[in-house]
Design goal:
- It contains ten helices and 14 strands.
- By secondary structure, the chain is an alpha+beta fold.
- It has two domains: about 160 residues, 60s Ribosomal Protein L30, Chain: A; about 160 residues, Phosphoribosyl-aminoimidazole Synthetase, Chain A, domain 2, CATH 3.90.650.
- The longest helix has 18 residues.
């Protein structure tokens, strides 16, 4: 009889069990009153409190954090990646007006490091708790041969709820409406493949500042993706928010049109908000064309809201964030639906 073990092939069941033990209490700390059952079942159960809703509509989304993970690995800082994942997903369903109710994660790696996983889950749990969202379950996959040793990937799945008559879908947007912008905290979770290429080609160091910035590059790049949940709640309590756009991959040019009816575009005043120095530093270090910057990065605006023109100046901040009037909705007169002035 042989003595070959699964661990000899690169999958360590004992380490998997240790990882579960490390994250169990953290996950359970996020459970809300809607969670049925405990940790470790084959699936998660959630009871929607229908007494709080007249016509509830469930809203779902899935996303990842891209190659920002490679920066986290290089810097050995993983907690923020979990925060990035949750906040990105929250912002996506927020664009329909939804409030998050539960979240699931998927973690895959070439060789499981339980402490590393626990650090990531701490970030996921903290972001979920901050949003009143239960971390209902997840999957951890150790796949030697598919991922290089030391590498991992992460994906998140979120479900939220919105009243049918409170859905934000852009249908009421009209030419002349005002466009408001909420500031990003940095790159959020997009453009990292380009940044990493610039770092590699120019032999830059993550531990050193880029010219024009005053913090180590890794710190700036790993700044967590901002959640706009509280800010959008506040905006909706004061304004008629007709459309919302989460500025992710593709920047303002690609994401704002997703929130608009056909036939409409926007004119944006690129001087209406301060563009953080990091973006100029990246452009200068890499020799990136200005148009490519605007179609790759958020350029300092992470969430866009469309409101009636008469309400453009009603609020100047929301949940502690400045609210910038950055443009207006116009009839589309050219193939480009976003015109930067």
């Amino acid at each position: 009889m042989g003595d070959l073990r699964y661990a000899d092939a690169g999958v360590d069941i004992d380490e998997g069990n240790r990882a579960v033990a490390l994250i169990k209490r953290t996950v359970a700390s996020t459970f809300t009153s809607g969670v049925l059952g405990g940790f470790g079942s084959f699936s998660g159960l959630f009871a929607l409190d229908t007494s709080r809703h007249r016509q509830p509509v469930l809203v779902a989304s899935a996303d990842g954090v891209g190659t920002k993970i490679k920066v986290a690995i290089a810097a050995a800082r993983h907690r923020g990646i979990g925060t990035d994942l949750v906040n990105h997903c929250i912002n996506d369903i927020l664009c329909c007006g939804a409030e998050p109710i539960f979240f699931l994660d998927y973690f895959a790696t070439g060789r499981l490091n339980p402490e590393q996983l626990a650090e990531i889950v701490e970030g996921i749990a903290a972001a979920c708790s901050s949003a009143g969202c239960a971390l209902l379950g997840g999957e951890t996959a150790e796949m030697p041969g598919l991922y290089a040793l030391g590498d991992y990937d992460l994906a998140g799945f979120i479900v939220g709820v919105v009243e049918r008559d409170r859905i934000v879908d852009g249908a009421r947007v009209r030419a002349g409406d005002a466009v408001l912008g909420l500031p990003s905290s940095g790159l959020h979770t997009n453009g990292y493949s380009l940044v990493r290429h610039i770092v590699s080609e120019n032999e830059l160091e993550y531990g050193q500042p880029l010219p024009g910035t005053d913090r180590p590059l890794a710190e700036l790049l790993l700044e967590p993706h901002r959640s706009y949940l509280d800010a959008v709640r506040e905006l909706r309590s004061h304004l008629d928010v007709r459309a919302l756009a989460h500025v992710t991959g593709g920047g303002l040019k690609e994401n704002v049109p997703r929130a608009l009816p056909q036939g409409l575009g926007v004119e944006l005043d690129r001087g209406a908000w301060p563009v953080p120095p990091l973006f100029d530093a990246i452009q200068q270090a890499g020799g990136v064309h200005p148009d490519e910057m605007w179609r790759t990065f958020n350029m300092g605006i992470g969430m866009v809201a469309v409101v009636p023109a008469a309400e453009a100046e009603v609020v100047s901040e929301a949940a502690g964030l400045p609210v910038y009037p950055i443009g207006r909705v116009v009839e589309q007169a050219a193939p480009e639906r976003v015109v930067l002035r």
